[in-house]
């Protein structure tokens, strides 16, 4: 009879361990997304300052400013990870256009405020890239745990579902084109 109770206690402890691991992974994924969200918020706060600085030099380039502003709003109001991923990828492309525009204005490139904003945005982009990588690594670990036996049984009982990876747009995954 003692062996029976030891087996039952062992199984209960094993289930508790699996449960706690799944909850830990779930919270880790949520935290990883929050880290991306924090860096994106910082990015969104920098963009209006950058746009205003460039506007002072390039008043006739209104289309780019409107596009950056529109995409910033769209990214900030994204409802889920897929929408946020897509909107932020579009915003990244628009920011590249904004920086390309700055190349046409030598006095802007020499402006200290613009250089500081450009440096801050560049640092933020690096932090966003790291946060995306961390998020995707965490989602991989979480999704793998949901699919592996016997964890998958408990995960189904807990109604845990796989999470979506933060996607990189196809144009950023191809080889870099260098032109001289």
Architecture overview:
The protein has 180 residues and is mostly helical. It has a domain at 47-136. 78% of the residues lie in helices and 0% in strands. The chain is built from six helices and no strands. It has helices spanning 2-57, 62-76, 81-103, 106-109, 112-147, 151-157. Helix 1 runs antiparallel to helix 2 and helix 1 (2-57) runs antiparallel to helix 5 (112-147). Mean pLDDT is 86; it is low at 176-180.
Give the structure's gist in a few sentences.
This protein has helices at residues 2-57, 62-76, 81-103, 106-109, 112-147, 151-157. The protein is mostly helical and 180 residues long. α1 runs antiparallel to α2.
- Helix content range: over 70%
| Major sheet | none
The number of helical runs is 6
Spell out the helices and strands N to C. Answer: HHHHHH
Query: C-alpha Rg, in Å?
Result: 23 Å
Low-confidence stretches: 176-180
Q: What is the rounded distance between the termini?
A: 81 Å
Q: Per the principal axes of the C-alpha atoms, what is the gross shape?
A: rod-shaped
- Coarse structural class: mainly alpha
Tally of DSSP β-strands: 0
Mean pLDDT: 86
Q: Beta-sheet strand percentage?
A: under 5%
């Amino acid at each position: 009879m003692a062996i029976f109770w030891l087996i039952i206690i062992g199984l209960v402890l094993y289930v508790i361990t699996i449960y706690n691991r799944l909850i830990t992974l779930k919270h880790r994924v949520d935290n990883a997304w929050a880290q991306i969200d924090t860096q994106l918020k910082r990015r969104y706060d920098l963009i209006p300052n950058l746009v205003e600085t460039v506007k002072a030099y390039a008043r006739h380039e209104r289309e780019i400013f409107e596009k950056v502003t529109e995409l910033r709003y769209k990214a900030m109001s994204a409802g889920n990870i897929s929408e946020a991923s897509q909107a932020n990828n579009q915003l990244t492309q628009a920011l590249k256009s904004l920086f390309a525009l700055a190349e046409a204005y030598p006095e802007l490139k020499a402006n200290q405020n613009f250089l500081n904003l450009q440096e801050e945005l560049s640092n933020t982009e690096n932090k966003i890239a790291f946060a995306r990588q961390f998020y995707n690594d965490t989602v991989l670990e979480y999704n793998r745990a949901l699919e592996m036996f016997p964890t998958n049984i408990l995960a189904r009982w807990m109604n845990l579902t796989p999470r979506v990876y933060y996607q990189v747009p196809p144009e950023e995954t191809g080889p870099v084109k260098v032109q001289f």
